[in-house]
Protein 1
Amino acid sequence: EAQVTQNPRYLITVTGKKLTVTCSQNMNHEYMSWYRQDPGLGLRQIYYSMNVEVTDKGDVPEGYKVSRKEKRNFPLILESPSPNQTSLYFCASSLSVLATYGYTFGSGTRLTVV
Amino acid sequence: AQTVTQSQPEMSVQEAETVTLSCTYDTSESDYYLFWYKQPPSRQMILVIRQEAYKQQNATENRFSVNFQKAAKSFSLKISDSQLGDAAMYFCAYRRSDNDMRFGAGTRLTVKP
């Protein structure tokens, strides 16, 4: 089944403890992206990647890191999480950056930082 | 940066009735795509419908249709014969050819039995 697999689904952590949210797609998609969803703000882009070893900042990149060493994987790293990073996170992918392609989304990660 | 505005934070509709969700966007581009995504309580983001800006004809998918007004930069979603399973958060999104997807703040739709 074609899908974006995102883990974990729920995560509660303490301030300052490094964490990684994994994202993997099996569709050979070039374009991958991370979003955070907050009430009243919709989805805002954190980082995106147009292909292997090519990543760039989105609208809200502060406090986050990403890497794209393989085409299928695009992990989101929080080196020192803070309470303002409590949010719902989505990984998404599309065949390419061309607008004709909508996104396939992961199932989301609910992160709470205490 | 392009912006997408959904002016209705919440909407409600009676089962079997019709409801329209509003979306406006701001862009200087002529070639782009517009999307509506549904997010039920399961959190999964589900593509409902897609519209290419260069097409005059409004997209339709079963009970879901759009009213695309390019000059007015408006892209509303009409849900006909509403069902309980339509209850969800709905996001309008915009994407141009070489860029990421921009989302509105969302409209929470309640369906009353």
Protein 2
Amino acid sequence: DSGVTQTPKHLITATGQRVTLRCSPRSGDLSVYWYQQSLDQGLQFLIQYYNGEERAKGNILERFSAQQFPDLHSELNLSSLELGDSALYFCASSVDGANQPQHFGDGTRLSIL
Amino acid sequence: GNSVTQMEGPVTLSEEAFLTINCTYTATGYPSLFWYVQYPGEGLQLLLKATKADDKGSNKGFEATYRKETTSFHLEKGSVQVSDSAVYFCALGSSGAGSYQLTFGKGTKLSVIP
């Protein structure tokens, strides 16, 4: 058990819809990272937050947004969903933003019908 | 930009065989290097890491040495077990302007048969 909790585990929705994925980091970790894992693109970094502030952006679409709340949990919002957004979305956390191992949750599997 | 290339899978080995999964990287500066493992239905788990040239990371019988001259971080294990069946990801960690991100290879699926 990594200590990182992601909900829900599975999400099935339709094109054009909006969903919110939630992540609770390990106790004491200030940094949260979001990744997308798909068969064709592999594991891609989306965005990083550190103590409530956005720190780095990767290959995140404009239709996607995230935030980290004062209690350090984070949410990833995906809107105007397309079939190609079907993937596993992982959250990871680390103590700080520099050079520390990242601990991953079990992921949310998003299926767009 | 940064990139990681690891050998394509799948790799199928018999129990007690020797394992090597090749990983090479392209990066500016002095990145840290990681191997993560993903068991079916689970998230990624850190297997080992190395933070500077010539460092050797090791865990659970797995080893990898950070080779700056060949920009490589190959994963090895002397005798694999069925329980090692999983997908292995090589990753590069880079810092910049208060941020930190991991760049992953595409993963190598390992199946160990009894």
